[in-house]
Design a protein that fits this description.
three-stranded antiparallel beta sheet, globular, 13 strands, Rossmann fold, 2 domains, 214 residues, alpha/beta
């Protein structure tokens, strides 16, 4: 199969020296790419430039991405090629920065002009956080015949809530499956399929075998 695996975090710049990101290391996605490569598949790994996992990477093709927009553009560029499966494990930032406001002496906030580095002498600031567009919601439009697997990493809501969100992602984005994991789910992973089937996997290796089969 010709596979694409996304891994690691996106970054969203506040200015030229500061950015918003998350704690994703890129390990899970890289290990999935290694597993698929070892099984004889052709794998392209798209990994965040700030991923911290330093393990060996065996994917045939590796490309880095920075922002959510950059990852989106790189994924869309593959829509002109035959892609059998996409495993979208990247931790895409939920927000990007909008307008930035500085507090005046009168206690009001006025918008700052764009600058390469916001000075700490500006005093108190308010920063607008805007939701990033969901890349996974666009994948089916670009890859009509591709098997698409998303991820739901949840911190709150418990195992039942995490599984419901995985089901919702499948329904909203017309994907074939979703992997639920994170503190809300607890140890291990659950592979939720579009037909309603669910199965728990205690380890990443067992999950990877199931992902290959679908």
């Amino acid at each position: 199969m010709n596979c694409i695996v996304t891994a690691g975090p996106t970054i969203e710049p506040l200015d030229d020296v500061r950015r918003l990101t998350n704690f994703s290391t890129g390990r899970l996605g890289m290990e999935l790419a290694n597993f698929l490569t070892a099984r004889g598949h052709k794998v392209t790994l798209l990994i965040g430039e700030s991923a911290t996992y330093a393990g060996e990477c065996r994917a045939q093709t590796v490309k880095t991405f920075s922002t959510t927009a950059d990852l989106r553009a790189k994924l869309k560029s593959f829509s002109r090629k035959k892609v059998d499966a996409i495993f979208h494990a990247a931790a895409v930032s939920d927000f990007f920065f909008g307008k930035i406001f500085a507090e005046t002496k009168a206690g009001e906030f006025t918008a700052l002009k764009a600058t390469k580095k916001i000075s700490t002498r500006q005093g108190n600031l308010l920063v607008e956080l805007l939701p990033t567009p969901k890349i996974i919601a666009e994948l089916r439009g670009w890859f009509s015949k591709t098997k698409i697997v998303g991820w739901k990493f949840e911190a709150d809501g418990g195992r039942t809530g995490a599984l419901r969100l995985a089901e919702k992602q499948i329904a909203d984005c017309a994907t074939d499956a979703c992997v639920a994991n994170g503190p809300a789910y607890g140890k291990g992973f659950n592979l939720v399929l579009a037909d309603g089937r669910k199965k728990h996997f205690p380890s990443a290796e067992k999950l990877f075998s199931a992902l290959e089969k679908i």
